[in-house]
Request: fold
Amino acid sequence: MTTLQPLPVPGDPCLFVLGYGRSGTTLFRRMLSAHPQVFVTPENDIFQRLPPIVGKGVADAKALDRAIAVFPPYYARIYDIERFRTEAARRLPLDAPSFFTTLIGCARIAEGKTGHLIWGHKMPSEWPYIRTWRRWYPRAKFIHMVRQPHDATASMVQYQLQRYPTSALVGAWQWRRAFREIRANARELGPESYLMLRYEDLVADPEGVLGQACRFLEVDESAVSRMIAYKEDTSGSHTDEGVHMERTQGALTTERIGRAGGDYNDSQTRMLDYICADALDELGYRPRAERPAGIFQKTGIAFANSGLDLAWAGVRAARRLRGQL
Reply:
């Protein structure tokens, strides 16, 4: 018989895994979920799709039915929808934080786990929602996975995971914007609520990095060996879909460190060095170009970044008008 974990409430400890796409967040999510006191749901867009429907909350059964009606089919793979319907109906009225907490509490990956659990959510594109999460969930902790920007963006260019084409320039701009926004929040959160980890360190020294994560989350550090063997854990059946996720099924390896060497030409490498220069220095990553960008390339990059900044401001404004976070 499947054990049903008591559902969490917004005041309970929780975790958000942050980071630019292709930075090891899925690998890390799977490792975390192998810990008996933690579960992090596979990637899903509840904080993007549902806020325009939920608004400030769900007042009655009709409003709850309207919200559930927009669930895409893949949600049923991640959440026990019927349990959510039953539990949410019992808790009505639900404010927005409670609606999402109840849904995440019905995650299938949590089934069979017992005791005090930390629930988690991971979706790389949702870093703009950090301030909302901080307001909704006062005991939330944030773990920021970073990967050398040349490698992370090269992988994004290869797999083209976004609604629009991702070029080296667009990827570099996105990587820098996400990094700066997350780090700005980190300064306000402090070390008690924010931890930054590097992908390169995770694959090179998983025991040390996962031990650090356990201490940060205040969970049993003796489970690190179980986290390293995440593919053997029952949570391993709850995987993220897509060909780009297949590497989490293989052996833990450092072979993807430096992968961008064969993907970018000299001009693109100089561009990434220039756009991400401050972050490279902060993170201890070395520039990869043999020589820095020249004045004409820097000027072109500045104009392109200004255009992307304006476009992003327009996108965010349009999304807010639609009721998104």
